[in-house]
Design brief:
Largest sheet: 7 strands, mixed
Distance between the termini: 44 Å
Order of helices and strands: HEHEHEHEHEHEHHHE
Catalytic activity: guanosine(46) in tRNA + S-adenosyl-L-methionine = N(7)-methylguanosine(46) in tRNA + S-adenosyl-L-homocysteine
CATH topology: Rossmann fold
Number of helices: 9
CATH class: Alpha Beta
Structural class: alpha/beta
Family: Belongs to the class I-like SAM-binding methyltransferase superfamily. TrmB family.
Shape: globular
Bound molecules: S-adenosylmethionine
Number of domains: 1
GO cellular component, one term: nucleus
GO molecular function: tRNA (guanine(46)-N7)-methyltransferase activity; tRNA binding
Oligomer: single chain
Subcellular location: Nucleus
Length: 308
């Protein structure tokens, strides 16, 4: 239960260094942000967390995003203990293998999993192979922590994301939030357990940078409409990024500037993020196998108007 979960009193008191040991700040990089003794003594990273996968399940999205954004720190949040432990151990195994490609991670031995929490079989073999690491690390090459495929930039935390999100992330810190295939909680009296709701959308807005993007995907049309109305009803905190920006196009060259004029590179990145969440999440793969439909929403955090 939630009683076993602990949260820092504020984000500045959260020690992320065990999660991202390759990104620990050197002494000279640590800026005294506050006079409070506990904040000053909390070990620091050299950058802020930037991408959150809310309800990450078995972590398919994390493993796909890691080599795409090697300079960004990415966190999966998951409420189930055994699933969180599985993802934790898989990350460690993948890091070890990236360091020494002759080590085959034996993900099947990674701790006890209940029948209903086991990842799909495909997850346990070919999907666990990381992309090749830099074959020729010359002196000008990026540092080992930055090599795409070393998985040092992803981690997972057991948390109930419906509670205390602002205790984990400072305001305006995240550039992306993924909400992939949230549990639908069909019954009306269970709707309060949905991880997208008007109240939670304001919390997501609070921790996001202006211009940041929240992504939603589900195979349940009702839930899609519910999530759309929560984001649309956010009182101007988010604006919808229309499908013509992020839908894959025939003869894709990634250079079509259409849409809302956010720039070609931005649009290409959004399109790639949507492709990844459609294809690389465990649920996304399951829906493809079953021939189901996937409903996507893309929501851009609008800058707050200046105080009058
Ligand atoms: N996002 C993954 C995917 O697309 O494959 C997993 C989707 S799964 C249907 C929903 C996940 O959200 C489950 O792993 C569940 O344990 C987790 N979850 C549900 N409520 C949560 C909450 N309040 N906080 C954190 N995780 C939660």
């Amino acid at each position: 239960s939630d009683h076993a979960l602990t949260y820092p009193a504020s984000p500045s008191q959260m020690d992320w260094t065990p999660h991202y040991p390759s990104f620990v700040a050197t002494k000279s990089e640590v800026k005294p942000e506050s006079d409070a003794a506990d904040e000053a003594t909390t070990p620091r990273l050299d950058r802020q967390l930037e991408i959150a996968d809310i309800g990450c399940g078995f972590g398919g999205l994390l493993f796909a995003l890691a080599p795409k954004y090697p300079d960004s720190l990415i966190l999966g949040l998951e409420i189930r203990t055994s699933v969180t432990e599985y993802v934790e151990q898989k990350i460690l195994a993948m890091r070890a293998q990236a360091k020494n490609p002759s080590v085959q991670p034996n993900i099947t031995k990674l701790g006890p999993l209940d029948e209903d929490t086991k990842p799909p079989k495909s997850e346990l073999n070919e999907d666990t192979k990381p992309p090749p690491t830099n074959p020729d690390p010359s002196p000008t090459a990026v540092s080992p922590s930055q090599v795409p495929g070393s998985y040092t930039n992803i981690s997972v935390l057991r948390a109930n994301t419906m509670k205390f999100l602002p205790n984990l992330f400072p305001p305006t810190s995240l550039s992306k939030i993924f909400l992939c295939f949230p549990d639908p909680h069909f019954k009306t009296r269970k709707h309060k357990a949905r991880i997208v709701s008007p109240g939670l959308v304001s919390e997501y807005a609070y921790v996001m940078k202006p211009g940041g993007v929240a992504y939603t995907i589900t195979d349940v049309e009702d839930l899609h409409l519910w999530m759309c109305s929560a984001f649309r009803g956010s009182g101007g905190l988010f604006e919808e990024v229309p499908g013509d920006v992020w839908e894959e196009r025939e003869g894709e060259d990634g250079l079509d500037g259409g849409g809302k004029g956010m720039g070609e590179a931005w649009e290409a990145e959004v399109r790639e993020d949507v492709r990844i969440m459609r294809e690389e999440t465990e649920e996304g793969k399951k829906v493809t196998r079953n021939g189901g439909q996937k409903f996507v929403g893309v929501w851009r955090r609008v800058a707050d108007p200046p105080w009058p």
